[in-house]
Amino acid sequence: MDIIGKYLDRTEFESYEDFCENFRLKVPEDFDFARDVVDAWAASEPDKTALIYCDDGGREKRLNFAELSLLSRQAAAYFAELGVKPGHRVLTLLRRRYEYWICAVALHRMGAVLVPASIQLTEKDIAYRIQNAEARYIIAVEDDFVLEQLGGLKSSCPTLQDIIVVGDQPPVPYRDFNREYVRRRPFEGYSGLSNNDEMVIYFTSGTSGYPKMAIHDRSYPLGHIVTAKYMQRVRNNGLHLTQADSGWAKFGWGNIYGQWICGSAILAYDPIRFDPRRLMEVMKKYRPTSLCIPPTMYRFLLRSGLKREHVASVRWFSTAGEPLSGHVNQEFYRITGHHIHEAFGQSEGTPITCSFEWLDIRPSSMGKPSPLYDVAIVRPDGSPCRANEEGEVVIFTGKKGRLGLLSNYFADGEPLDPIRDGVYHTGDIAFADEEGYYWYVGRNDDMIKSSGYRVGPFEIESILNTHRSVKESAVVGYPDALRGQVICAVVALREGYDKSEELTKELQDYVKRNTAPYKYPRLVKYVPELPKTTSGKIIRKDLATAL
After folding, report:
1. Burial class (CB in 10 A: 0-12, 13-18, 19+), 94
2. Neighbour count for residue 285 (Cβ, 10 Å)
3. Cα 211 vs. chain centroid, distance in angstroms?
4. What is the b/e burial string over 106-129, where b = at least 16 CB atoms within 10 angstroms of the residue's CB?
5. Cis link prior to 173 (omega < 30° from 0)?
6. Would you tell me how many other CB atoms lie within 10 Å of the CB of residue 57?
7. Is 272 helix (H, G, I), strand (E, B) or coil?
């Protein structure tokens, strides 16, 4: 059976130009992910592997599509019995437990709205999300820190009706998901909702303010056909690994929707904390055929002794979530014989640009636009930029529509249409070279204006992060009476290195040798760790105000 063929006129293309000209997505009027993907595989290939789960404690679980279909129908019946109805919003705090997939499919099946959240959130953060989403239920993993955050939520969140806990022995008074749901008769029927109804809500990272709700409708999984088939190059009957917490939109990019449409199984590795050596062991043991992890993880793999044997099974490597240093890509190729293919996108949509298979690898390039969107780089007045001219990346929705993009924002108690006059503004600055390859510069809010120059932080950070002493860095603007702003590098050092005037001078000279001299950091500050959101993004506003 070929599920992806139901939604594409053609699945294979000879060139990027052929891809852009002939890629066509067929969207049915009532797409239902549970029915049209999970149940369809269960009916045609019941023994087909859907999920392989493992953790650092030696636990392993494998689910085929027949098992997943049945368990998700039992979970849907259980949720319905508790009072969950179509349109109800349900917040999950499940890390990468295998039950996440059962719960997610169950909620999609019955028409409830999935609101994934990170287990790193504190009680205040969780309450903020419940109150803004008006969530009625929480499904949380049995974890000491998570359970500690749940105690006061019912008193502060009037919409919250019940808390369900996933684990071996959830404490009283919480409902025991694993013990209770398998006793239910399977849910029959489907939600009956339309493509325009809500399906998933992601809270944006909130690096420059409170997180907003990015709302996706029920056609959203179809947009991730591009993600899985053409960005990550997953294979039917392959095994794909995207290492991301289920509370992040990156998880939706790589761990459920497009991958299952394409027929790939998911490798769900669920560590308590990231350990590059352990990840190498997992890849060597389970042999994924495609891999998508953030640039930071690739960097730590290289620093932890990555060898070709650790990733011998992988045929395609990709990344997204933050810019990838060209140095990391080149070093990875030297060791493995493979390049890392970079994509650019946001929680608000699917990949906007990508280093697709037909394109030359240009380390640090974002690749070229996805045929799903009408993408351009524009000036503040909306006119198109010339080659090598920096501008904002935007999506015009008039010609190709907005499949894959969020249907709405919600912030401060009000809905906000993200499309203004037919244009979605990403807020990201980039330029395109003469051959149409995109190159990332930085967030519009992060641009540094110094002595008449506009400087993006990414290039300087990429250089600093290759220095032997630097674990990670962030570059921000610091107020200066003469220059307006000066470039300031905030650096976390690797073990064995200490801050000193000599090291500061060495880092400054290192930047001068590797880029235009005016871009060197006039200030270098040292910190133990960089402040980050729960999705791992650096919070630059916290750095700027703390300096």
Report:
1. buried
2. 8
3. 15
4. bbbbbbbbbbbbbbbbeeebbbbb
5. yes
6. 9
7. coil
Residue 232 above 70 pLDDT?
A: yes
Residues with Cβ within 8 Å of residue 124, at least 6 apart in sequence:
none
- Burial class of residue 144 in the structure, from the number of CB atoms within 10 Å of its CB (0-12 exposed, 13-18 middle, 19+ buried): exposed
Nearest to 283 by CA among 272, 271, 295, 273: 271
pLDDT: is 86 or 151 the higher one?
86
Tokens of 242: 């995207």
Query: What is d(CA 82, CA 412) in angstroms, rounded to the nearest whole number?
Result: 30
Asked whether 374 and 397 are in contact (CB, 8 A), the reply is yes
Q: To which residue do tokens 């995207």 refer?
A: 242
DSSP 538: B
Q: What is the DSSP letter of 8?
A: B
pLDDT digits (tens, 9 = 90+) for 310-353: 999 999 999 998 778 888 999 999 999 999 999 999 999 999 99
Q: Does the pLDDT at position 205 exceed 70?
A: no
Q: Is the pLDDT of residue 134 over 80?
A: yes
Q: How far apart are CA 538 and CA 536, in angstroms?
A: 7
Contacts of 368 (CB under 8 A, 6+ apart): 16, 353, 354, 356, 359, 436, 437, 438
Query: Residue 36 in 3-state DSSP?
Result: helix
Residue 360 pLDDT exceeds 70: yes
- Asked if 63 and 51 touch (Cβ cutoff 8 Å), the reply is yes
The distance between the two most distant Cα atoms of the chain, rounded to a whole number of Å, is: 72
Instruction: State how far the Cα of 201 lies from the Cα of 415, in Å rounded to an integer.
Output: 13
pTM of the model: 0.87
CA atoms of 15 and 20, how far apart (whole Å) = 9
pLDDT at 533: 64
Q: Coil, strand or helix: which one is 437?
A: coil
Would you state the structure tokens that stand for residue 353, as one six-digit string? 């640009």
Residue 175: beta bridge partners? Answer: 164
Residue count of the chain: 547
Question: CA-to-CA distance for 291 and 156, rounded, in angstroms?
Answer: 41
Q: Taking the alpha carbons of 318, 319, 324, 328 in that order, is the dihedral positive or negative?
A: negative
Q: Residue 269 forms beta bridges with which residues?
A: 54
- pLDDT given at position 373: 97
Per the structure block, which two tokens stand in for 24? Answer: 């066509």
Query: Residue 337: CA atoms inside 13 Å, Cβ hemisphere, count?
Result: 9
| Amino acid symbol at 187 | F
Residue 102: both structure tokens together: 């059962």
Q: Is the pLDDT of residue 209 over 70?
A: no
> Helices 99-110 and 65-82 meet at what angle, rounded to 10?
60
Residue 534 has pLDDT above 60, yes or no: no
Average pLDDT over residues 538-544: 72
What is the per-residue DSSP string for 336-360?
HS-PEEEEE--TTSS-SEE--TTSP
Query: Which residues contact residue 246 at a Cβ distance below 8 angstroms, ignoring those fewer than 6 apart?
Result: 92, 94, 95, 96, 97, 100, 116, 255
